[in-house]
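W.,

You were right to be curious about this one. When I first looked at the sequence I had no strong expectations either way, so I just let the prediction run and decided to look at it fresh. Below is the sequence, 649 residues in total, followed by the output.
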Amino acid sequence: MRLIIFTILFPLILTAAALKANAQTSITSCDGSLGDPVINQTFGSGSNPGAPLPAGVTNMIYTSSNCPNDGYYTIVNSVNLNQNCHPTWQIVTSDHTGNPNGYMMVVNASAQPSVFFTQSAPTLCPGTTYQFSAYILNLITLAASGPGVSEPNITFSVLASDGTVLATKSTGTLASTQTLVWNQESLYFTTPDNISSVTVEMTNNAPGGNGNDLILDDITFRACGPVINAGFGSVTGSAAQPLCQGANATLTLDANVNGNNNPNYQWQSYHTNGGWTDTAGQTAASLNVVFKNAVPGSYQYRVGITNGTSTLASCRTYSSPLTVNVSANPVIGGVPLSQSVCEGDTVSILATGGVTYQWSGPNLAPTSQTPLVINGVTQADAGKYTLTAYNQYACPTTTTTQITVNPKPIATIGGDATICAGSSTQLIASGGTRYEWSPAGSLNNPTISNPIATPVDTTTYTVKVYNDAGCYVAETATVNVLKTPVANAGPNKIIVQGQSVKLNGSAQNGDVFYWTPDAYIIGANTLTPVVSPFQDTTYTLHVTSAANCGIDSSKVFIRVYQHIQIPNTFSPNNDGVNDLWNIAALSTYPQSLTQVFNRYGQQMFQSIGYGKPWDGKYNGQLLPAGTYYYIIDLKNDTPKISGWVVIVR
């Protein structure tokens, strides 16, 4: 641990008694305005490590490590960042302003006192209060603090050149904290008459040994004066004044000093490259600032005051800056110089670059609408529209756009048409200079006024008829496509001679029907006539349409079965009369099955079809006279026929 002394030397002419009296009457605070620093030590910024302090500034030993040992110091922008430094130290990643590249003075105190910083500041003013301050951070972590661990305790002292103390103040113990805490500690004192320089010291009062490690940053020494009131238009006016680009204005800045009736004023303006500079001749309580065709930017002004006859800059204190913010006028985007639209269209203009907007134009009440939307424009909406865009400070920019409203063509189109499938028809439109038909797939040329259409199905065509201005109207025409008729005579039928049956014909795309032949038919011009042929007959259904879009036909077969007459006796005795069991018309049933049984159920005869009648024999032998039983299955989905027959000898 070590004694730390911060020393600033100012030459001085003063009696010992006066010096002692001044040290006893030092003030403890400054409630007014501060001047520019006579000393402003920030240690600079950059990458680690920073350069050592100049020779004579400190008695401590410089090290390039960001983790100095006892009796050493370093200039760095961070401490213990990689957890490889003293385990009892805080992790510090930036200087007290939060600048990650800002340098700080890191001190690892030793047991012996040492002057670690000295600097001279001449040309002080008598009877002027000064503030000497520094930001101090205790490096010891809260976990590492406690009994036996020293905490920083700094005494600020102002001394005459002979070492006499003019003012002094102790910070007291700066305790360890859970999180980083930068303490701004200050000493205030008023220079006696005829003072031109002093010496300022910072002394670490904590004992040496364990702990007492700290960081210093932003050491300043500046004048402290009364409260300065300043504003635009009056001392209670605003501290900022907006102005628009290109404006011409004269602004008055007023100032006064609390409790001081005879201050010396000096107005200053801020320049980016040169900092604050005096404005020549502006030493009154008011300042007029003239803007002509104002250029965008931030313009700052302040007033400095001194007491008595002194006008030295080191004696001044300053008001808070007053700012004129010249705002750039908005740059309008999205608004064309002109645009041409068609009657009935919607105009939409989305302007950019402003915060608020104001539109005016023909047939339009002033509106702040954004985007500007005009639905269904007419000729009354044609003309010049004016837009004024405003930024957040109500600074305007104006632009115009010319809207031309073109009439739409007067178009005509041919009526609907009906065609047969596979046929074509011509579509006709007029009244334009350009045409667009859709759907285009079934057209020979969709860009002419009279294309040939060959649709497969009924289709509604739309044509856009354009004029030279590019405006169009849309019209439609429908081409109805009649399909080729399709005939279906229905399923085949079976009847017995003398019966009738209804045919079940059907048709698609047709409305004219007739059947051939027209014999034994009732309703030959309908889809469901009734037929009663005496023999097998094929009927044909013919289908066409009133539009004459082709004809189709379909056939149906009518199977006509003959009546079967079964005799119940025959005499197979070879006398040439009734020798066979002749069943009339059975031969017309070629799939029929005829079976004859004796009274014992034995089958005596069987025939498929009846091409050869039964001769009353069984296996070539004559059967005895008697009664026999038969079953006949016509194989036409009719009930089987059964009965008896007698053989007579």
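Here's what jumped out at me. Confidence is low (pLDDT under 50) at residues 1-26. And, maybe more interesting for your project: The first helix runs from residue 16 to 24.

Coffee later to discuss?

I.
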